[in-house]
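lol so apparently i was supposed to do this last week
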Amino acid sequence: MSAPPATSSAIPIQRVAESRLPDVDLTRVVFGSVYSDHMLSATCRDGAWETPSIGPFRPIALHPATAVFHYAQAIFEGMKAHRTDEGVPVLFRPRQNWKRLNRSARRMVMADVPEELFLDGLRTLVRLDRDWIPPNAHGSLYIRPFLMAVDPYIGVRPSREYQFHIFTAPVGAYYEGSVNLYVTRRWIRAAEGGTGEAKAAGNYSGSYAGMAEASEHGCDNVLWLDSKEHRYIEECGTMNMVFVLGGRVVTPPLGGTILPGITRDSVLRLCREEMGLEVEERPISIEEVVEAHADGVLSECFGVGTAAVVTRVASLVGDGVEVRLPEPTAVQDEIRDRLTTIRLGRRPDPFGWVERLD
Ligand code: COI
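anyway here it is w/ 2-OXO-4-methylpentanoic acid bound
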């Protein structure tokens, strides 16, 4: 576990007159229903960032022609803060989120967010609203940094002005229990050369039609397949996918069309470096999964992501596919436990993933 560099933040803070926290039951927070007291905001004009500030969590007023409303030049990150059993707020691999945000920014031709702005802003905000972190048994503080194009101009071109904000929200589980995923060849999430590996806002709303169909079939989300052959498994939109096949951990490779998940990377490292499991990052087709299930070789399927953590997949159904996953979930249970205990500082952190905000 590491401590952040000992810089005293120069970010001006305007505190709320009265915290809303006394009205919130942190042991019962539904994902995305409650937001903490403060948010960080910063503006970039023609490549130059102004001094960020932290103020009360509030609506953002924008001109109706603002670019982001029309052309979705917007990207975001998802991260979480927890509290150790001693009550110290901790972040998990925050620098990786900063790096990924800027990879997304480059893909969407947006301004880069400076490391100091992102990390100092994040640390200052989480320290300020640390009391909003739910007790460990009930959830975490979800952190949502986002960058959007704010030129009041409806011509189609990258914006010159951007706003960067970070807000936080106490959250319970994103998925309660296991999920059922819908297999479809009708819709795609991403194609080669597209924006699939960026955390671009439009990737999510572009998935809604498939998600609506999934919901009509009693499923929680879509198991996205590749755009060319409609065979190879990509991700599920909120999670990267992992299969346990004949004792080996198999996951689709990062080929430009799926999100390079930080949880995905952490899980694969735990599997390889701590659990001694063989890990294969390779294309895996839906046919292979169906066959492995029929042969009794497929023992587990789960999704991994910041919001979802490690979520069991109970079934893959649709388009002639029906795979009901067996109950034993030893591999995913061990991964979840290893991830959680490192994150909460309950055991040594050999990877240097956890940052304490003492
Ligand atoms: C996350 O896991 O943080 C995500 O961004 C997925 C979803 C909640 C949008």
